[in-house]
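Worked Example 4.2. Consider the chain below.
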Amino acid sequence: DRRLRLLRLCADGPASVSALAAASADSEPNVSRQLKQLATAGLVRRTRQGQFVEYAIADAGDEANVVSWLLERIGEGDAALR
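Applying the procedure from the previous section yields the following structure tokens:
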């Protein structure tokens, strides 16, 4: 799933839409839409860095706990998410 893949990538540290699109082999508009949904759900946070916006895993609250739980269960052994 695209959103799980993006969550896994965001767990590695803050990244721009361009970087996430390149890492996930998806288009920037698609990645941007998925990130918007994740941000609305409180699973990722957006931080403006000049002209760019970086996305990272939310770091507080129940949503962040859900993300941590999901990422622990998925693990790095999942080829699609690696």
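The longest helix spans residues 61-74. The CA atoms of residues 66 and 72 lie 10 Å apart. Compare this with Example 4.1 before moving on.
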